[in-house]
Design the sequence.
């Protein structure tokens, strides 16, 4: 399973974009119209993968920019060597069919663009929070107001959830692509602080941490803390076994340490899951599924997949 996930991620994030970049730069197009459609398809794929690709924390934050640079070089190569010699429109029936095909593909790829816009729309109801970690650069693996950017979105309670990892100096979240060693993950053991002042609604800290990619689908949040603050319940999940420093019923201040990042619950690797639901909620089913999820602003910022948060 691990190998399949990795192969799919490599194909989606590198093989397909590199094929399209090569097609753009070394195209045997017979008309400018055909080549422009090919370039449009490539640009749309790069945009979609850059913004919505779920695997950049695996490979490194900087790779999308490398692909864009290669795309620009491909455009430059074709433009300087071939483009000026081509007619604008095809001169054969086969040429027109080719243009029709690549134009249709470009239109189809473009239909995904509204979803990227919708993902950026801030919900009407939000809770203002402080970033729950300190020192470093963090990366949002899932987040936003559409399922194309956030796999939590179809679940009412988790609708605007974030999954967060920490990046090293190479822009990656771990040493290696999918290591089994928990210590290889930058965020492992990272202290987690209260993002708001309030009361601890629930606190569970005795769940085991699993070796990636093992997980516990029977108890999704694993070790977790929920805080009731500003009319919302905020869940911070997948914490480290034995690391909690608070208990249910306790009043906590903004920035007070809650625990540390672990790999407990239904998670394939260490990360912080955080989401908010309306009202004071202690029932786990309501918290995860049936509750009314609300948005979160961190220092006024609504976060989306593939965005970074740098804390000095």
Sequence:
């Amino acid at each position: 399973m691990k190998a399949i996930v990795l192969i799919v991620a490599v194909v989606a994030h590198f093989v397909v974009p590199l094929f399209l970049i090569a097609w753009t730069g070394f195209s045997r197009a017979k008309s400018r119209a055909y080549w422009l459609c090919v370039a449009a398809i490539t640009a749309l794929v790069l945009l979609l993968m850059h913004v919505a690709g779920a695997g950049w924390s695996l490979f490194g934050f900087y790779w999308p920019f490398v692909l864009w640079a290669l795309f620009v070089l491909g455009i430059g190569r074709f433009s300087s060597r071939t483009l000026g010699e081509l007619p604008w429109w095809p001169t054969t029936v086969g040429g027109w069919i080719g243009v029709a095909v690549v134009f249709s593909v470009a239109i189809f790829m473009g239909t995904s663009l509204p979803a990227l816009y919708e993902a950026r729309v801030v919900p009407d109801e939000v809770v203002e929070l402080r970033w729950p970690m300190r020192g470093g650069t963090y990366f949002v693996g899932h987040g936003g107001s559409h399922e194309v950017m956030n796999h939590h979105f179809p679940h009412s309670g988790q609708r605007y959830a974030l999954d967060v990892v920490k990046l090293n100096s190479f822009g990656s979240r771990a040493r290696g692509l999918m290591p089994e060693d928990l210590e290889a993950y930058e965020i492992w053991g990272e202290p987690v602080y209260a993002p708001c002042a309030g009361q601890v609604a629930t606190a569970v800290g005795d769940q085991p941490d699993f070796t990636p990619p093992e997980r516990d689908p029977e108890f999704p949040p694993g070790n977790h803390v929920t805080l009731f603050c500003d009319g919302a319940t905020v869940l911070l999940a997948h914490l480290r076994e034995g690391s909690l420093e608070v208990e249910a019923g306790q009043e906590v201040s903004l920035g007070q340490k809650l625990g540390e990042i672990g790999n407990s619950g239904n998670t394939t690797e260490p990360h912080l899951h955080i989401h908010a639901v309306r009202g004071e909620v202690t029932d786990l089913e309501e918290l995860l599924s049936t509750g009314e999820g609300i948005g979160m602003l961190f220092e006024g910022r609504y976060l989306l997949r593939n965005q970074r948060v740098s804390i000095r």
Observations:
- The chain has two domains: 2-111, 126-311.
- The chain has a mean pLDDT of 95.
- The first strand starts at residue 126 and ends at 129.
- The CA atoms of residues 138 and 166 lie 4 Å apart.
